[in-house]
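Ticket #4471: structure export looks truncated?
Reporter: QA, pipeline team
Priority: medium

Steps to reproduce: submit the single chain below to the structure queue and open the exported record.
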Amino acid sequence: MVADIQGRIMVQGLLTATIPTKLGGDMNYIARHIVYDFARPVFVGETITCEGTVEKVEPAEGRLNVSLSFVCRNQDGKEVMRGTTEGIIRT
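Actual output as written to the record:
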């Protein structure tokens, strides 16, 4: 790994992208489509939080069709990643 000029080591973006998948896993959500938008880099040692919003729930046979949005922020409240996802929750 190579540090930047400030001595920081950047975290690979898909590692940050695993955070919202934890939220989905807690709901037994099965993603069918995910879009990530990486706003700024994340560095080793930062604290990242993720907030999800259920945008839509449509009942279907044996499942709920669900649309979610999420935003991840660093410890300074700066947005590092946002995204949307569509999938199902089996009923």
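Status: closed, not a bug. The export was complete when the record was re-opened. Leaving a note from the reviewer for reference: The helical segments are 13-26.
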